[in-house]
Every structure is written in structure tokens, then in C-alpha cells.
Amino acid sequence: MSVIRSNWAEAAVAVGAGWPCRVSVLHAPAVVPSQVLDQLPAAVYITDAAGKIIYFNEPAAALWGCRPTLNSDQWCGSWRLYWPDGRLMRHDECPMAVALKERRIVRGGEAIAERPDGTRVPFMAFPTPLYDGSGAMVGAVNMLVDVSERQRGERVAHRLASIVESSDDAIVSKDLNGVIATWNKAAERLFGYFAEEVIGKPITIIIPKDRLDEETDILRRIRRGERIDHFETVRQRKDGSLINVSLTVSPVTDGSGKVIGASKIARDITEQKRREEQIALLAREAEHRTKNLLALAQATVHLTQADTPDELKAAIDGRLQALAKAHRLLAQSRWAGADLRAIVADELSPYLGNGDARAEISGPSLKLDPDPAQAVAMALHELSTNAAKYGALSIPKGRVRVEWQLQSGRRLRLQWIEKGGPRVVPPQRQGFGTRLMQRMVCGQCNGDIDFDWRKEGLVCAITVVT
Fold first, then answer.
1. Class of 2-151 per CATH?
2. Residue ranges with strand state E in 287-432
3. Alpha carbon 114 to chain centroid distance?
4. Cross-strand partners of 125
5. 3-class state of residue 1 by DSSP
6. pTM higher than 0.90, yes or no?
7. Region of residue 51 (phi > 0: left; psi between -120 and 50: alpha; otherwise: beta)
8. 298-465: CATH class
9. How far apart are CA 199 and CA 405, in angstroms?
10. Does domain 167-268 have CATH number 3.50.30.10?
11. Would you say the CATH fold of 298-465 matches that of 2-151?
């Protein structure tokens, strides 16, 4: 299509308006009404057939950062030019030079103009050759579009896309109907679906049926422009397994500020929940153990009897030390259990040795839970204290043997056997030591304790669940 225009200005206006046509002119450039081109917001300049600049408007001078010499400077008014990849571009290689040399329209040729102050402006050029009535090319008009903002926006968009793709958090976007629009790599790892499996499908594919009402409420709040921060919930993977997540949901708006969708950031908090449950469990366990320990200490103080204050102090101290030893063994295993052999050996250590040992230990390796460990430790302390005062360990020839075996139902049977000590006389009344042992073994551990006061020495059988 050929459109005839009366002068250069009208031709330039046609190019500025983006008309897809071959433009012809009838009159010489001298009659250009510059006030028309000066009003255009775009950078426009005109050359003759040899490429010499014969007109430019102020937006063009602002883009170049300089004012070319009319009828002298050729091809482009830029101080210096570069290709988009940063290589130096000669002026006779610029889009305007190409349009004039090859006599063709160039649309969107890209280059970078460097101003005299060193700043660079990326731009797109739209040069169009101009012809007179006889069809002879008489010059060209060019419009330059500064694409700095567009490139900045592209760089920002690319950077954001890279951040989204490399994020450890699942980042998903959806429209106001809950249809998935984007799905990053972390979402693939977290939920088990590839992006191509879910884009275009409703977000409800990852929401358990009993939580579908959450999505309705989220979309309602997003339509109002609300942001939802750190909403803890449960979502469902492709394999059907459930996962604890923390969601942050934000409205997505268009250029006018209208809400058109939502972006979701989902963080896997399964490990966090596990730690919280573990901390709560440890807190409850610590509370239980503390109460139990304080109750034992209180009972030890209140029920211990002695003839003198020093004897009372020694008795209380010995019992608390026995309890402390059991706690030390439990703490070493982080309360997973205490080794029974270590408990027995700790209590009988003064009587164990390589020479004339007065105590013997026999039994399989066995770990006791905290409650039975404390009960056995306290019982052994009472038995060894009584033996040292009145029984087999009170004379050099006396001997003690401690043996144990594990019975069915995880029941431990431990025997304390004394021999070679003074003749045994059964006690006429139940002392504190006996009451404490029964309280620990029978009351606390639902076990059983039996005293056999044989003449040759005491035999005590203790049964507890390990």
C-alpha cells in the first residue's frame, strides 16, 4: 500500500503512529513544520538519502544526551553506539544506516546509545525510508524508543523468577477461582506433583477433604485484598500422605490494582512440629521426674529416724546419694535407661575387688527404665546399709551375692543373698528402710518384694517390670 503525504512532518507522524505502509513525500525537507514533530513524545529524527541528519526533536536530543550537527552528522545522533551484547557498533551499522543502505523498513532494531557523560540508554529503532513522487529515495525518518525501564523490568522479573525457582519454600500462584497458574521446583519436591501435572487444575488437589472449607475462606479474604500470614495447616501429597505446612497467602493485583489472584508460600513444618511435640513430651517427663524425685526426697527426710542429729544426717545423705547415683546413670543415657549391673556395682563398690571380695554380682546385661532403676537403687542402698550395720557386711567373714534374671513379661527378679554374717533375728517391727523399699518397689513400680530372714543370712527377692 502506498500512502502519499504532503510533507516530511506528515510522514514522520505516520511512522510515529505505527502505520504499516510505504511512505512517499512530494515536497522537499525544507518545508518541514518542526512544531508538529516537536510535539511528539517519542524521539524522532530525519536524515537525507545520504544519512545526514536534517532534523531531530527534543526527545531525541534527550535520549542521545547531545545535539548532533544538522546536515553534517550521519546516521544517528548518538555520541557512541553499542550492540546489545556490549560490542562497539559503528554508526554506519546502526538500524538507520541499514534502512537507508538496504532501502527497507527496519522494525525494532536494538542498540545502546552512550551519552557523553558515560550513561548508556538501550533503545529500539524503527527507521522507515522516504520516497518522492518519482519513487526516488530522499531520506528516512526514525523513531527511537527508550527500553531502559522495560529491560529493568525484565531483569527484575528474571531475578524474581530465579529466586522463586531456587527457593526452598513451595511457591504457588492461582487465580480467584483457585486454579493453579504457577508451581515452582520446591512445590514439586514438597507435594510430589510436577508443574505440568497441576497447572490449570484446582488447588484443592493438595487439600485434604476435611479441610476444603479453608480454601473457601482463603479465597474470600484474598478477594478483599487481605494477606494471610503463617497459617498452619495440613496438606496432602500426591501419594496421599499428609504434611504439616505453614502458609503465607498474598493477593496478586494487575496494573490497575485490581486483585486477580493469589500467591502462596508453603513451608514444611513437619520437623518443627515433631520438635515441639518432643519438647512438650520432655517437659511432661521432666515434670513427672521432678515431682517423683521431690516426693522421694521429702519421704526420705520425713521418715528417716536416728538417735542423734549426726546419725540422721548420715542416713538422709546416704539415701539421697543412692538416688543421685541412679539419676547420674539415667542422665548418661539421656533417660533411655540405666544399666542394672552399674547400679549394683555402684552400691557395692566398697566390697568389690580383685583380692578378698566380699560381694559378688551375677546376671545378664539389662537396662532399666527410670522408675524401676530408682526403685532398685534405693532398695539396694537400704539392703547394703542394713548389711553393713547388722548383717553379713558387718563382720569380715560375711559375704553378699546379688543375682538376677529376666522372666517372661519383661519382669526382673533380683535376689539379695547374705551369708556368713551374725545370726539373723527377724525384726519385730517394720523400719523406715523396709517401708521405703515397699513404697518404691510395690507402690511406684507395681512390683513385689519378699524378705526371708534365714538364720544364716537375709535373702530378699525383688520383682519389678523393667
1. alpha beta
2. 338-339, 359-362, 367-368, 399-407, 411-419
3. 45
4. 109, 144
5. coil
6. no
7. left
8. alpha beta
9. 64
10. no
11. no
